[in-house]
Amino acid sequence: MSNPSQYDASTVESKWYDYWMKNNYFHSIPDEREPYTIVIPPPNVTGVLHMGHMLNNTIQDVLIRRARLQGKNACWIPGTDHASIATEAKVVAKLKEQGIKKSDLTREEFLKHAFDWKDQYGGIILEQLKKLGASCDWERTKFTMDDDMSEAVIKVFVDLYNKGMIYRGYRMVNWDPEAKTTLSDEEVIYEERQGNLYYLQYDIVDSDEKVTIATTRPETILGDTAVCINPNDERYSHLKGKRVIVPLCNREIPIIEDEYVDVEFGTGCLKVTPAHDENDKVLGDKHKLEVIDIFNEDATLNSFGLHYEGKDRFVARKEISKELEDKGYLVKVEQHTNKVGTSERTKAVIEPRLSDQWFLKMEVLVKPAMEAVFGEDRDVKLFPRKFENTYRHWMSNIRDWNISRQLWWGQQIPAYYYGEGKEDFVVAETREAALQLAQEKTQNTDLKAEDLRQDPDALDTWFSSWLWPMSVFDGIRNPENEEIKYYYPTNDLVTGPDILFFWVARMIIAGYEYKDQRPFENVYLTGLVRDKQRRKMSKSLGNSPDALKLIEDYSADGVRVGLLLSSAAGNDLLFDEALCQQGKGLGNKIWSAFNLTQLWTVSEAIEQPVSSKIAIDWYKSKFNKVLTEIEDHYSKYRLSDVIMSMYKLIYDDFCGWLLEIVKPGYQQPIDAKTFNEVISIFEDNLKILHPFMPFITEEIWQSLGERTKEEALIISKYPEIGTSDEKLINDFEFATKIVSGVRTIRKEKNIAFKEGIELFVMNNESYTKDFDVVIKKLVNATEINYVEEKVDGASFRVKSNEYFVPISLDSINVEEEIEKLTKELKRAEGFLTGIQKKLSNERFVNNAPEQVITLERKKESDTVAKIETIKASLATLQ
């Protein structure tokens, strides 16, 4: 055991974490107990611990440790996500440093580099979570590209394809030119940006007339294949059937008519670029227009870009607008604010692009997931409920999910091509199965496995993580296995609202599709971690503290408490290191309380004092009341309220009042009955606090007595809620106010605590005398007298009761009192001079509002009265 006189968090934390791991307390296997299951939101394998992870995983650990104490079979599954875009970008960058281009490698060679990188850098975050105290079942750690996890993903793809729900289509998609892959609509973040609206003139063929068109992207004129006017716009009716010449490239394109054109916007003439705008693509299909794609995959201009070929789109925009101006095509430029789509991962501006991609039909799949949240039974509950509106909006406006990505890091799409036609492919779990299907489809038994070309694209990362609550228990490959039947559906999911659609909604969809069950019952959506100025934590702002340094400075327990003190359910967390200091302070307080109990000598020979019995009865009642409150807070996922209630109970009521009352006199023993009851109460406090502060609570628990490994705090029994005497609690609170009043008089009058005092009471409130014995002990009163009339001396009120402490010069340190009163007199006289100066100023008196003058005159009279009182007090002392 550690030295009780000092607490060293760094050694204590590593000691008990190793002890928990050694004794396998985190590991779960199915048994007869009620399961309680949480799956971790798998952090990116590229990740390191940041404040969002700290908050999210602290909450999960609180819930899992509490469930363990409640006797449930607690299982918390950890793992990491392969994070296609982010990880591939890191691997490509690392290879570039070594002079290796991705394009020079085969897929297999690249994947070897990627897995080497993952083995070297991946999973750092999971090791860091151990420092925080996360009690995950580490034996069950999963990675979304483990062989069994990948098999499950491929199995689901094939199944959905065979059900007619996955299809390949040539569509306008969101293209990330930095990652060189498509993104789903949900991975595009729209930002308002200040840009320009360029007014350009197009020459009309065989005419001196020109037509003016407004565009935000002048570089895309090189891909124009029509100009469109509204057939009802009389301004342009004479242009019907004519053609215009595209500036710079001098191509002739038709003028078409469509009511889609808004006659009020811009000039009422619309340039149509089917390859680079979704609405233009619809117009192009309708009017059978040519499609000209002017960009390479990195958003540089291709051969259609004329002499701008190879230049970045934003560089080309500036240079093309300058050339248009020089050649007289640019009429004017106006400032224009519009919404620009950016990549959630790389922050690059998204480029609409036509591409062959794989899509999952969502219209039918989404219905059970809507019913789960909004049905009569509310099978899946979101906390706080305000997020239901966000969920409804996304799910009601859902579009088919673009699930293919132009990446190598991820599960490769199991489509195998045997010919050159768009439909010349089969979908199967393995190449062998694909060969058999291809032979049957083509009636060609000479077809060989090497004749098949697998689709090079990988699946969207979310297409693997949407199976997470099932695939971690092998529920896709072996749907009737013992573990999936025992642990699924899971209980609680703790995550951020930013992935409510990306991940949460999709897991619900997959759960109903593959298990016909919800994947979890409750979803607790945490807020974002922000600094005191309400700015989001980020590396670029430099306002995100080093998570491990915080643990080093304030202890893991202190940081956990600090995070949750500032985290109201579903609201953003305004993080302040002072809260971690407050958490550390709570640890120091209970450590001091432990030390105090260890200093007492216990005697079996003495009776329990009445004051101790009353205090213990009161604390048990207060404990049960608070336990009822915190159970209610837990049910609503209000963990900040849970820790606040515990904080007040343990810091104020236990350490501040109970221990003070039962504490024996100097060098006196404590009776055994009181000691044993206090230790039992202390143990109950440790049990309820353990989920929040696991390390210090286990240390004290183990130090309070010899424990076997079956008696460790982590697996002890959570206290049951007993009865609570509300009158006893209220009466005790009344007594504490009396104690505080007397202590204030002692402090103000410099009466040393060792000096006994008499206390006189005018008991107008008919307050119980049961607590007199407690009050006497805490204020060192020799007697409490009940009187009908006021008594000379210092006084205070509690409700309608008045309390008097007669003051004798014998009990006062006269010199200190004179010094204190002299300072007070000087301050009061200075304050009075300031007020009187203000009131003698005619300008102030004539111009100030009447209520201000009245207030100043009241201040003057109050200060005069105060000065007289101080002078009278000084006169009695001198």
Characterize the overall form.
globular
Radius of gyration: 37 Å
Work out the strand percent. 15-25%
Which CATH class of the domain at 547-724 applies here? Answer: Mainly Alpha
Low-confidence stretches: none
Q: Portion of residues in helices?
A: 40-55%
Give an overview of the whole structure:
The chain is of the alpha/beta class and 878 residues long. Strands 7, 8, 9, 10, 11, 12 and 13 form a seven-stranded mixed sheet that branches. A four-stranded antiparallel sheet has the order 6-5-14-16. Helix 21 packs antiparallel against helix 22 and helix 23 runs parallel beside helix 24. The longest helix has 28 residues. The radius of gyration is 37 Å and the shape is globular. It starts with 8 loop residues before the first helix and ends with a helix. The mean pLDDT is 91.
Task: Summarize it.
The protein has 878 residues and is α/β, with parallel strands linked by helices.
Features of the shown structure:
Isoleucyl-tRNA Synthetase, domain 2; 4-stranded antiparallel sheet; globular; 43% helix; alpha/beta; hypothetical protein PF0899 fold; Isoleucyl-tRNA Synthetase, Domain 1; 878 residues; 7-stranded mixed sheet; 17% strand; 31 strands
